[in-house]
Amino acid sequence: MADDLVVDLRGRDLADLDAFWDAVAEPCGLPGWFGRNLDAWWDTVESRGVSPLIDAHGALVVRAEAAGVFAPGNEDGERLARLFTEATRARLELSQ
What is the pLDDT of residue 96? Predict the structure, then answer.
């Protein structure tokens, strides 16, 4: 299996989901028509076929800080983090 694609977002201001989509678009090779929602993200990381760059790797690893969208209690971040937990070919690594 191919190596993991690691996208390190630590140090970036990820205030909300829009900032997350902006931050992952280029390093994940997301096409312009990417839906910028959790269903589209699931299709991208789990079903595959959206990003040839992600598809070329065994798994996607996103590293971010437990702040902004990923701060405790942020509902959008909790839903996004849960999606990573349920995925078999993507994981989220949060640091303090």
Answer: 87
